[in-house]
Design goal:
- The protein has 277 residues and is an alpha/beta fold.
- The chain folds into two domains: 3-104 and 206-275, D-Maltodextrin-Binding Protein, domain 2, CATH 3.40.190; 107-201, 3-Layer(aba) Sandwich (D-Maltodextrin-Binding Protein, domain 2), CATH 3.40.190.
- It has helices at residues 10-15, 35-53, 65-74, 84-92, 136-147, 164-172, 183-188, 191-194, 219-234, 236-245, 255-260, 262-275, and strands at 3-5, 25-29, 57-62, 79-82, 96-101, 104-105, 108-112, 127-130, 157-160, 178-181, 197-201, 206-207, 210-213, 250-252.
- Strands 1-3-2-4-13-5-14 form a seven-stranded mixed beta sheet, with helices on both faces. A five-stranded mixed beta sheet has the order 9-8-10-7-11.
- Helix 4 (84-92) packs across helix 12.
- The longest helix is centred in the N-terminal third of the chain and has 19 residues, at 35-53.
Amino acid sequence: MMRIWLIAMVAVLLSAAPAAAQAPLRVLLLPYTNAAALMRIHQPLREHLQRELGRPVELFTSADFVAHFEDIRKGDFDVAVTGPHFGAYAVQHGARALLRYRATLTPVLAVRKGTGLTDPAQLKGKVVSASNRLSTSSLAGERWLAERGLVAGRDYELRASATHTTAIMAVAMGEVDAALTTHTPIHQAPEDVRARIEAIPAPSGVPHLFTIARPTLPEAEVRTVRAAFLAFGESAAGREFFAASGYQGYVPLTAEDVAAMRPVVDLLLTALPKAQP
């Protein structure tokens, strides 16, 4: 399976020479944007974990959401920061629940300012971009539009986009009428793009990104890793990370969170064959 490695510079690894004897902690990231942006966003987390754990930390991502689900399904990671539907599936199949982001993941329609689009019902006959048919925002967003009587392929054209960022930029540039996304990618978009976008939120949301550990990670290591992630949230770098991302911090990942994602997991498993190349 193709993977994109986001390892920091050799100089950083050399500076961690005392930790080099230990196997790296492999952290899988959800590919919601391009690899360079993922590295930039999560570099403070990587540096913190390396200091706290006293061992190298490798960040990597998957080529796309189909490949990501395969990595999750196989447990091909030590820790994964993943979509809540992928994470819920993994926990249901033995993965260790660590934490989740405090923010709620609410599907939103990103529309261009000045178009007069204020309600999903106005999308009939329009073009809607989505980052991936397997993302939480796409699955829950399509369900939201269906509840409003709009079916993809019948009432509106659903156009695939490589990432949330490119879907939002397509709206800003007038290439599509709306994008199914969430608040976080809008928050992380360049300022000139944000200035041209308005968000229409769905009436309800789901738990945000899950942080999980592979099923075979030893219990002592699970506790140590969970503590290291929590310590990041309390650090200056962590507070800056959560303020910039809009994730708001960490909270425990509970059985209730997993149960809340079951309807979206069902949609994921139904959509998966359609998303295969």
